[in-house]
Amino acid sequence: MPTMSADALANNLTSPARRYLWEVMIPNPPFGESTTLLLRCQTASIPERAVGKILIPFKQTAGVAYPGKLRYSHTMSMVFVEGEDREIFTSFYQWLDKVVNAKTGYGEANIKLDMYLHLINNDEAGTVALRTKIIGFYPERMGEVALDQSAEDEMKISIDISFDRWEYVA
Predict the structure, then answer these.
(1) Whole domain around residue 115: which residue ranges?
(2) Could you report the average pLDDT of every consecutive run of 10 residues in the chain (170 residues)?
(3) Are 125 and 144 in contact (CB under 8 A)?
(4) CA–CA separation, 82 vs 114, rounded Å?
């Protein structure tokens, strides 16, 4: 059994991953520029991934548990910083309008994209340590945008996306 000490941890963990060193990459978005979306995304997360459970009771015992279906939350939230160019607001508004048009009630067929979340190493090269691919995503909700004359902070837009699944990309 390994010794429990700070030295043992330091010798075992070369450098902890930093959750502030990441980027989101949306290749070829239908509206806006991928560079703008990459630079202005302030918060995101790797979505939850879980395995369901099949419980088989047996007589008067608790029974046996077996792994069931793979489950995803199918939604995740992202927060973007808006600029005076209104690039984020315009891009996601137009994309949501393609999902379901407010005037006609119809949507377009090709609205889904793939997106990548990269966790970056804390080295001079800035190499990518962890890649995840969010498959089949589209914007589901553009949150309300708070406007306040007494505030001095930047305008932020919260976007909820739906996705089919995600995977680790080695």
Answers:
(1) 16-169
(2) 72 76 88 83 91 93 93 93 92 93 90 93 83 95 91 92 93
(3) no
(4) 22
Place of tokens 């589901």: 140
Task: Kindly tell me the sign of the dihedral angle through the C-alpha atoms of 30, 36, 38, 40.
Answer: negative
Count CB neighbours of 157 within 10 A.
22
> Residue 115 is which amino acid?
M
Domain count, the chain: 1
| Cβ neighbour number for residue 81 with a 10 Å cutoff | 14
Got the DSSP string for 4-33?
-SHHHHHHH-SS---TTSEEEE-SS-SSS-
With respect to residue 9, please indicate whether it lies within any of the assigned structural domains. no
DSSP code of residue 50 = E
Residue the block writes with tokens 């708070």: 146
54 belongs to a structural domain: yes
Instruction: Supply the pLDDT for residue 3.
Output: 65
Instruction: Using a cut of 0.85, tell me whether the model's pTM lies above it.
Output: no
